[in-house]
Design goal:
This protein has helices spanning about 20-30, 45-55, 60-65, 70-85, 110-115, 115-120, 155-160, 170-185, 195-210, 220-235, 245-255, 275-285, 295, 320, 330-340, 345-360, 380-390; strands at about 10, 35-40, 90-95, 125-130, 145-150, 325, 360-365, 375-380. By secondary structure, the protein is of the alpha/beta class. The protein is flat and about 80 Å long. The termini are far apart.
């Protein structure tokens, strides 16, 4: 324990792959001196410095920090305190959600990676992240941490983990068969343990209905599958949509009429006014050929028949082929054509495009290192965009090439 540990360790893996749990249990069971810092909670370096000093040396050490401490202030105070109470064994700083450190001061991440050298103490920093180290490495270079990858759970491992949540009223075999059916539907599209656990809890009551009513026995998996299959496939529309709670999903099941029929709760996401028009413009850019923009969006284009710009042997619907990529300038040109009022090209419009990408309504397909105009794809369905268009009184069907 008294030997110096490796200065920094970088643990990465997808969400809900056990990184934080394994590290925290490891620290607690071995009773190692450590502090766990969430980069989401520590919105400033002041909170980070205070938490580290308070955990290792007490509240009095944290009070020694000036009002706006720099990294050198933290190093100086840490060295003073560690000289008074030297480490008997390695101290660990566990940084959760470490990808947020990329947005902090440029010197913070390199300093944490070699903190042992700066403070001259037996200390090690563990970074937990959902992204790979290549996305972290600064251009100026830094100390290379020890890399450790937590792989995704396999289907068998997910089955084993989810089966531990069995309902007390039913047997373990019954719940295990339910989890097996659930993974058969959702595993190809979702590997997130938290999301799968939420879906399992959400749909289990439906699975139990025929058993509770006495129509089906617990061991008759074939009939149970026939009953639950349509409900699971309908629930696929709500995967990763955090705004859909269990209560809302049950209400949608009970009152499935009108616009709700066949649509996921995703179609009821509230968007800002101009974001709706940006999404409409993106859909038109993805599903209309670029050569048709003149026919749809120019006021004085003359008479252009569909047959005049129809390619030879073009018989396949663009909606069957899927969305096509489009450049940013084409998106903005269509947006300014379809929006009701005149809008200045302000930073707000560009930030709303970024928000649509974050919400996964648009997909950025150009590479990070590409200096040319970024390209996007629209990632929503016709039903979704139809609902959005109705909220702003825009008839999108009139502008779609496939419906001429």
């Amino acid at each position: 324990p008294q030997q110096y540990c490796y200065p920094s360790l970088f643990i990465y893996g997808h969400r809900a792959s056990g990184k934080s749990h394994v590290v925290n249990v490891f620290m607690k069971d071995l009773e190692l001196p450590h502090v766990t810092v969430s980069c989401v909670e520590c919105v400033s370096v002041v909170l980070l410095f205070e938490k580290v000093l308070q955990s290792f040396f007490g509240g009095d050490a944290a009070l020694l920090l000036p009002r706006s401490p720099s990294l050198s202030d933290f190093v100086r105070i840490y060295r003073q305190q560690s000289s008074q109470s030297p480490a008997k064994q390695t101290r660990y700083i566990v940084m959760e959600k470490a990808e947020l450190l990329r947005d902090a001061d440029v010197n913070l991440l390199p300093a944490l990676l070699r903190l042992q050298e700066l403070v001259k103490d037996n200390i090690s920093v563990i970074l937990l992240s959902e992204i790979v180290w290549d996305k972290f490495r600064p251009n100026t270079g830094c100390f290379e941490p020890l890399l450790l990858h937590f792989p995704d759970y396999s289907k068998g491992e997910l089955q084993q983990i989810l089966s531990t949540d069995q309902h007390p009223s039913y047997s373990a075999e019954f719940y295990s068969s339910y989890i097996n059916m659930l993974l058969g539907v959702f595993y190809p599209v979702c590997r997130d343990l938290r999301e799968l656990r939420h879906l399992a809890a959400l749909n289990f009551s439906k699975f139990c209905e025929p058993v509770a009513a006495g129509k089906v026995k617990e061991t008759d998996t074939h009939k149970l599958w026939k009953y639950i299959e349509p409900h699971l496939k309908k629930a696929m529309q709500t995967v990763y949509l955090g705004e859909v709670s269990s209560l809302q999903w049950e209400q949608m099941e009970e009152h499935e009429t009108g616009a709700l029929r066949g649509l996921s709760a995703h179609t009821h996401v509230e968007l800002p006014y101009y974001s709706k028009f940006l999404l409409i413009a993106a859909y038109l850019a993805s599903y209309n050929p670029a050569r048709t923009d003149k026919r749809f969006f120019m006021k004085h284009h003359g008479k252009i028949r569909k047959t005049n710009f129809l390619k030879k042997n073009e018989k396949t619907s663009n909606h069957l082929l899927g969305p096509k990529p489009f450049p940013l300038d084409r998106l903005l040109a269509i947006f300014y054509s379809v929006v009701d009022s005149r809008v200045a090209p302000t930073a707000s419009i560009f930030s709303q495009i970024s928000s649509l990408v974050t919400l996964q309504l648009l997909t950025l397909i150009s590479r990070d290192d590409q200096l040319d105009t970024p390209k996007y794809k629209c990632a929503v369905s016709l039903d979704f965009i139809s609902v959005i268009s109705r909220t702003v009184n825009f008839d999108i069907v009139k502008y779609l090439y496939d419906f001429l």
